[in-house]
Amino acid sequence: MKYGWVVLLLVWSGCAADERSNRQEDEQAVREQIESFHTGLRRAFRGEAVDVHELFDSLFEESVYSVTYWGVTEPIDSMKNRIERAIPLISDYSSRLEIVSVEVTGDVAYAFFVLRQSYRLGVPMDEYLPTTYVLKRLNGTWKVVHAHRSADRETIERLLDVARARVTADTTEFGGN
Prior knowledge:
Elements: H1 2-45, H2 52-59, E1 65-67, E2 73-75, H3 76-86, E3 91-105, E4 108-120, E5 124-138, E6 141-149, H4 153-173
Parallel strand pairs: 1-6
Antiparallel strand pairs: 1-2, 3-4, 4-5, 5-6
Helix pairs in contact: 1-2
């Protein structure tokens, strides 16, 4: 009977080690997929030919909504179009990901990271963007099914200043007060 328990314990510990190894591999795959997506965005913002729709489709599930740091939800198609429109307006783009945490449980994962990006949108911009993704394994591929991004106060105030300046310039250009 003692040997039976020893064998059972060895089998159980082997299964636990396999599960831990699989989870670590999945966590690494999620990290790499997020990093690959942001590398593609970096290339697009630096003027390289990147199919933005294909890039987003590689990471995001087609019906996902993202919660923006403006506090509104945005469907993925709207996000793709917004990024495409922004690409020609942005110069001197650089970004860095600080992946804080990725955890996988079965076919569900979450990732928390900070995106730091700098660029010119008429004026220099520096953004600090804490981001959370919830991912699900769909047909063997990890896809974001929920995204939430925050921003620090300085980022939001700077973007509002840029928007106000553009509205003022447009109003002046078209003869407004």
